[in-house]
TrEMBL record:
Biological source species: Conexibacter stalactiti
Compartments where found: Cytoplasm
The protein's name in its UniProt record: PhoH-like protein
Highest classification ranks of the organism: Bacteria, Bacillati, Actinomycetota, Thermoleophilia, Solirubrobacterales
Domain of life: Bacteria
Main location per the UniProt record: cytoplasm
Family: Belongs to the PhoH family.
Length: 338
């Protein structure tokens, strides 16, 4: 049972929690990294001596910290390893009145030491949307796991034989979809544009398995222009960097959908590389298809960034800068996406 006592400052409380030894070991982690993350995220002071955890701070912060610690204890009891990112995931879930274990225990793919599961509530919604809808759009900033989770879901679907192949595509905007001037065969030409998809694939599968799948067209990686005129049956299809499609390309791509297939479209509308007078297909499609049954849009924010903490700060700083734009610059930005 926790004990509570008043500190010299009337507004602060101190609470001591007796932890299971396994929970105490997970919280101490490597050089107390998890404990320090907990302290910085929850705005109260935390000490761990043996298996006694002491929380001190404003009553609300101490109460929130105790709730997180109890969730950590529950996850450790279920066999989870606790990392600094786990603390942030627990906090995010609790803020949105979601069960942290429900989010973090939804393991969608395992490969050797790699275990892929949602780390935020929005990522969980994204994964559920892919399961339950034929077409899912994941829209949000870099580092929110849009492509990573989509490739993991594709690998899982292929392993369960729910689909016969995985198709990964991107618009090759920098080369204007005209890749002939680059040296080498098709794979060499498109490699600079599709490398992030290859990287995700190699995280999910053994390199030799990826090579064999590519050779037998079980996995196909191609620029968006090569999708024209096809009907894609029994496939898990991922369109990455969709903010760089034109409305016409987006329509062309979506109408490639065949029987027993799923489509996942990912993109970030703040990173459009199209000419200023060209509207993004990812912006347009949200207006056209938002109410169509079987199609879902999941929108990520800075709170869903699961890369290095600095990436989240960068995203937040750019968002704040966008809000401070002078009216004339904001108008120009609006015209670009209008």
């Amino acid at each position: 049972m926790p004990g509570t006592s008043a500190t010299p400052e009337d507004t602060k409380v101190r609470r001591r929690l007796e932890l299971d030894n396994a929970v105490a070991a997970e919280l101490s982690g490597t050089q107390d990294e998890v404990l320090r993350t907990l302290e910085s995220d929850l705005e109260c002071q935390i000490w761990l001596r043996g298996n006694i955890l002491t929380l001190e701070g404003e009553a609300e912060a101490v109460e929130a910290a105790e709730q997180v610690v109890r969730e950590v204890a529950d996850l450790v009891g279920r066999g989870h390893e606790i990392a600094p990112g786990t603390i942030q995931a627990i906090r995010g879930a609790l803020r949105q009145h979601e069960s942290p274990s429900r989010v973090l225990e939804d393991v969608i793919w395992r490969h050797r030491s790699t275990k892929v599961a949602p780390k935020t509530v929005n990522q969980k919604r994204y994964v559920d949307s892919i399961r339950n809808n034929t077409i899912t759009f994941g829209v949000g900033p870099a580092g929110t796991g849009k492509t990573w989770l989509a490739v993991a879901m594709a690998a899982a679907a292929l392993s369960r034989r729910e689909v016969n192949r995985i198709i990964l595509t991107r618009p090759a905007v920098e080369a204007g979809e005209r890749l002939g001037f680059l040296p080498g065969d098709l794979m060499a030409k498109v490699d600079p544009y599709l490398r992030p998809l290859f990287d995700a694939l190699h995280d999910m599968l053994d390199p030799e398995r990826v090579v064999a799948h590519l050779e037998h067209n079980v996995i196909e990686v191609a620029p968006l222009a090569f999708m024209r005129g096809r009907t894609l049956n029994d496939s898990f299809i991922i369109l990455d960097e969709a903010q760089n499609t034109t409305p016409e390309q987006m329509k062309m791509f979506l109408t490639r959908l065949g029987f027993n297939s799923k489509i996942v479209v990912t993109g970030d509308v703040t990173q459009i590389d199209l000419p200023n007078d060209q509207r993004s297909g990812l912006v347009t499609v949200g207006e056209i298809l938002s109410d169509v049954r079987g199609i879902d849009f999941v929108r990520f924010g800075g709170e869903d960034v699961v890369r290095h903490k600095l990436v989240q700060r960068i995203v937040e700083a750019y968002d704040e800068h966008q809000q401070r734009l002078a009216p004339e610059l904001r108008s120009a930005s609006d015209r670009r996406s209008a």
